[in-house]
Amino acid sequence: MSDFQLVKSRKNRKKNTLMIIKNDDATTEKHTVTDINTINRRLQDSTCLLKASECYSQVRDLIADHEIDEIVCYGIGNFAECCIARYQLALLILLREDTIQIPKSSCYFYDPKFYSEEELYLKDAGFTVIPENEEGKRKTEKKTLFYMPHCGKSLYNNLIWANWNRSSLSKCIIVGNSFTNILDRNPRQKLEDSCWYLLSIAPFAKEDKFPDNFQYTDIFNDTVITSFPECTLKDVTLSTWEHSKEPSYNEDDLEFITNKITSL
User: What is the full DSSP assignment across 21-86?
Assistant: First the structure.
């Protein structure tokens, strides 16, 4: 997930302390600790700006068309530091408050790159932090919004595999990258080898495109609401549903941090 800087500056900002974290390449990086109050202030600023936008009003109306019992957020990124992640989180918080209206405890978060203070912020706010890396393989029994903006296609593929039946998929709503665009941008043979489930279900999915009128264009670009209406899933052939092999990926196709890497 890329980042950008707002032009607005803040004077007399206190110096942050440094801590050492373990990263994916098994090297040591310095991470600037952000205190909870600063995270809260930045997130409130993003939330206020977003809520006043026409973009939010239109997205809210799109989400209102769906019945949602729980939210699962994968791969939101480091919202303590990244402006894109912070606005994406702000949208989710607003949608839960204004439209979805479920308890905070029914809103689940996981990102293997979360800093400890980000996990603490989410927990203190009343949300649930998933304790282990599920690799997106969560089977849902409820009508669930999977909030996954700008995630890799293999993570979407894992989620679809975990819910590979008509009953489960019809309960899934995904806020994330357009499957149509994924198919357009990748050779079919490559998708057959690495993302068979995504490739197979894409023709039966319904996509509602996010508006492109937010002032920062790289936050919700290529984002859609994907659902799987029962009326279209009934056209999926029995032989397609019988496919059940768990996805596996070579190094070039792996677009998420595996639970094996997380546990190192």
Answer: EE-TTS-EEEEE---HHHHHHHHHHHHHHHHTSHHHHHHHHHHTTS--SEEEEE----TTT-HHHH
